[in-house]
Input
Amino acid sequence: MFQPAPSGRIDRAAGERERRDVIERAFADPATRVLLVHGDAAPRSGDGLGWFAPSDIRERAEAPIDWAFLGRDAEGSAVLAAVAAGPDAPIPGLDEGWLTLRRSGELSPEAFGAFTAAVSIGRFAAERFCPRCGSEAPLTTAGWARTCSGCGRELFPRTDPAVIVVPESVDGERILLGANAAWNGEMYSCFAGFVEAGESLEDAVHRELFEEAGVRLSEVRYIASQPWPYPRSLMLGYRAVAETEDGVRADGTEIIDVRWFSRDEIRAGLRGETDFGLPGRVSIAHRLIRGWAEHEAAGAEASVA
Output
């Protein structure tokens, strides 16, 4: 049976993770809510997520479960993640099916934040062995760490920084977007890439734009960030100004086309009235593009869950 969703933004309550009994105490509290995740999906309920009581998961799940303490809601009730292993749905026959994180654009910021944290912890929970000695490393710290049973090394969830940027023309009237080969040229988005070892975020922005589109930038401005567990990224969003609109070119490997777009074209694309696609609402790429189309100030604070 689905339970009401936790109310308000979840306080991670990191200090409680050190308590060995924090999850057991949450099991005993009828106000505790659990988000079940399987890969990057969670049960759907109506237009949101389906939340369970701990007893529902413990009695009905047909797959091994790893538990993590996500924090507490506005009323102080515990919020847990139940991470299911294996290829099959852990609770078969749910009437409303499953919602993937990539398709969760209509969720509230609070629900999206909890969903992202649960998927991220789930990816970490699947890494069961120490990368140094190969011994099993059981979960500790309420799901937020592992301790190797062989060498004693403490392991934590990994986060890889990646930059994502939308470059605009000198006059600010057009933006440059690229079509990734993986999308068969059907969708245009911002340029993105992982930060390399020993590289600053700003240097990564300049490098990615030149590598993927042949663009030199005269100005780079940070906007906002978004956790993105594909597989374990933290996306750092930027707006930038291209030195010139001339000479742009796709790298031909990862990016197969680059194109300048006017605001009217972007607005039509956001309405779904064009022959090209734009990123879905859940992504920071969508926020960067929409912010430019709606004349949001580049330095204004952006609210990205």
User: Anything to note?
Assistant: The domain at 14-126 is CATH 3.90.79 (Nucleoside Triphosphate Pyrophosphohydrolase). Residues 14 and 71 are 7 Å apart (CA to CA). Residues 299-305 have pLDDT under 50 and may be disordered. The two ends are 27 Å apart (CA to CA).
